[in-house]
Amino acid sequence: MTEANNTPIKKEEVLKDLNPNKVIIPILIGFAAVLWLIISNDDINLDNVLDNLQHANLFWLFMSILVLAIRDGGYMYRIRHLTDRALNWKSSFYIILLWEFSSAITPSVVGGTTVAMFFMNKEGIPFGKAMAYVLLTAILDNLFFVIASLLVVFFVPFEIFPQNSNELIVWGYKLPVEQIFMISVSLIAIYTFFMSFGIFFKPKGFKWLLIKITEIPFLKRWREAAIRNGDEMIAASDELKHYNYTYWLKAIFSTIFVWSARYMMLNCLIAAFSPIGLMDHLLIFSRQIVMWIVMLISPTPGSAGTAEWFFELFFKQFFTGGFVLIVAVMWRLLTYYAYLIIGLFIIPRWVKRFIQ
């Protein structure tokens, strides 16, 4: 299926995924998590909180918002570049914000890739190409996660993992943060390897493997989906064969840029309330890379609740009097809940434009 607006993704499924009522669940989870953290934290001091807010560094607060806007601009540039400028800036704006919204209302490990393909197709990108661009985006992001996190763990001369942290319960087992990180980064690396191998080298072999796997009796109900996904992988592979090294360099550097900007936003926010130096900035930046990997295990939409808990675990050393929880809420308001709210305004307009 290569014609624009001819997609095997049903619009009813997408509209169900974009249901504005879905924002209620992550908001409630996040609110409950923050409330529990506040109640269970004996260090919170109201006077200290008010004092920190009154003496906030406005320059760094402004920079945190500016960096966030620059990051979104970088996302729009990247999606335009990956699509070989088939998307204009307006279409890129809609796709990025709607993609952020769909990712925010689905578990972190799932993301909003299916919805993103539908968005791009409705904006005029043939489905085979849309599939290729979304898969490429996922591969680039995952490669950044794996490579950057391993570089941080092995070469940054600081204690990256939080000390004296309680073991976390994951899949019924108690595990320290370091082990959770290793499990998560290993799974991401394996997934990325198979996706890269399938899309760049052996797409037909990838389809064959999917079909063979779904010959197992209890997996047969996914056989039709496996065949469809295999065909989509072949189509995506064909689309990506014709680009030169300049295309790939720009794709790689734009990926590094957008994720670095995402992390720098928190550096700026912490600097607004804590007197940190250059080495502290490096530590905060490095810990975010690791924290993001750990957060990917979260089963909640957009890591709601989990992100706030991990934030306190990784960054409480930079604050006193429980103020770390206030900064965690600010961080999530700017980088997560803001996109839920923006999505509520954009979705009706986008649906009116493209879905009758």
What is this structure, in a nutshell?
The protein has 356 residues and is an all-alpha fold.
What would your notes on this structure say?
The protein is mainly alpha-helical and 356 residues long. It has one domain. 71% of the residues lie in helices and 2% in strands. It contains 14 helices and two strands. The protein has helices spanning 11-17, 24-40, 46-54, 58-82, 89-104, 113-122, 127-155, 177-200, 203-213, 223-240, 245-271, 278-295, 306-315, 323-354; strands at residues 168-170, 173-175. The protein has a two-stranded antiparallel ribbon. Helix 7 crosses helix 10 (223-240) and helix 11 (245-271) packs across helix 12. The longest helix has 32 residues, at 323-354. The protein is globular, with a radius of gyration of 21 Å. The two termini are 21 Å apart.
Give the strand content. Answer: under 5%
Q: Name the poorly predicted regions.
A: 1-5
Shape call: globular
Q: How far do the termini sit from each other?
A: 21 Å
Structural class: mainly alpha
Secondary-structure topology with pairs:
Elements: H1 11-17, H2 24-40, H3 46-54, H4 58-82, H5 89-104, H6 113-122, H7 127-155, E1 168-170, E2 173-175, H8 177-200, H9 203-213, H10 223-240, H11 245-271, H12 278-295, H13 306-315, H14 323-354
Antiparallel strand pairs: 1-2
Brief descriptors of the model:
single chain, 356 residues, 71% helix, mainly alpha, two-stranded antiparallel ribbon, 14 helices
